[in-house]
Amino acid sequence: MLFIYLYPLTVLIINFFIKKKKFLFNEYQLDHQKLTNNQASLVGGYFLIIPIIFFFYKSYLLFSAICGLIFILGIFSDLNILSSPKKRFLLQLLLIFVFVIIKKVEVFPTRINFLDENFSKTYWSYFFTIFCLMILLNGSNFIDGLNGLFLGYLLIVLTIIYQLNLSSNFNLLNEKLDLIIYAFSIIFLFNLFNQFFLGDSGAYSLGFFIGYILIEIYTKNLMISPYFIILLLWYPCFENLFSILRKLIKKKSVLMADNEHLHQLIFILVKKKFKMKDLFINIISGLMINFFNLIFLYLGSTDPGNTKFQLYLLLIAIFLYVTFYFIIKSVLEKSITFYKN
Question: Is residue 339 part of a domain?
Answer without folding.
Answer: no
